[in-house]
Amino acid sequence: MPDLKKFLPPIPDSLKLQPRRAGTNPEPETALDNAQEAGKHAAGWIDERLQLSGAVRWALFRKVPRHDWTYTLGFSVMFAFLSQAVTGVFLATAYDPSTTNAYESIRQMTNEAFLGQFLRGMHRWGSTVMVILVFLHMAQTFFYGAYKYPRELNWVIGVVLLVLTMAMSFTGYLLPFDQRSYWATIVGVNINGTGPIVGPYLSDFLRAGPEFGATTLSRFYAIHMLLVPGAIGAMVGAHLWLVMRLGTTSPPWNKPRKKADA
Questions:
Q1: What is the Cα–Cα distance from 183 to 185, expressed in whole angstroms?
Q2: CATH code, domain carrying 190
Q3: How far, in whole angstroms, is CA 5 from its chain's centroid?
Q4: Does 256 map to a domain?
Q5: In the chain, how many domains are there?
Q6: Closest C-alpha among 141, 162, 137 to residue 151
Q7: On the CB side of 162, how many CA atoms lie within 13 Å of its CA?
Q8: Does the predicted model carry a pTM greater than 0.90?
């Protein structure tokens, strides 16, 4: 069996414990030095038992094309999703998914709860930012040719993530349950119903029946809070695994560097 350790990047010196030489007077330590040493000791204690340092180095320490900020778009999308998940959990603690109390719970959350306006603003505008970042990331992947062999499956997963992102935005739009979100959702569901074959079934699934009712809001809330975020989390995991497994694609206009003559 081949030794996999030789394929792993080395541990950076900044993360290694530096033993002091015997017979030398130790230099005075500051609080920051003590904190760094304690962190290294804690990480070493955990790694000695879980043996995760190799996997972490394999996942994080890898070569990427230099001087191209567009390679941060994928991480930006993931950060936006995590921001949506965290703020959504806090908002869910005060939200009442009922047709009679949904709007009032949103109003109370925004105007009376501690940092409620901040959390709702982060979640509301964060959804727009996430959609924009997803489209930019897809455009960058397309123009860089990262959908070609051997990364076709990763492109398909990215398209599924785009659809799930739009689904999360659509289902979340109804939750304030005001006049604008109510009628806009009716229009959106009716548009879905015009699709071939599965359109009518999809509309009935979203409405939780043939007509809009009290269970429609609960259906949208469950899809928005449980179904779609769970699917996005699973797809993001598969997406990141393929990125780590296959690497990133260099822009087509980048020429390979020539090796220096010996």
A1: 5
A2: 1.20.810.10
A3: 30
A4: no
A5: 1
A6: 141
A7: 15
A8: no
Q: Does residue 24 belong to any structural domain of this protein?
A: no
Q: Does the pLDDT value for residue 76 go beyond 80?
A: yes
Token pair in block for residue 4: 């996999």
Instruction: Please check whether residue 164 is in contact with residue 239, taking contact to mean a CB–CB distance below 8 angstroms.
Output: no
Structure tokens at 219: 């259906």
Q: Could you tell me which of 136, 124, 107, 116 has the C-alpha nearest to residue 168? A: 124
* Short-list 237, 239, 224, 234, CA closest to 123: 224
Instruction: Note the pLDDT tens digit of each residue in 173-224.
Output: 999 999 999 999 999 999 999 999 999 999 999 999 888 888 999 999 999 9
Q: Is 43 inside a domain boundary?
A: no
How deeply is 171 buried, as exposed, middle or buried, from its count of CB atoms within 10 A (0-12, 13-18, 19+)?
buried
Q: Is residue 89 part of a domain?
A: yes
Residues spanned by the domain of 135: 69-246
Encode pLDDT of 125-176 as tens digits. 999 999 999 999 999 999 999 999 999 999 999 999 999 999 999 999 999 9
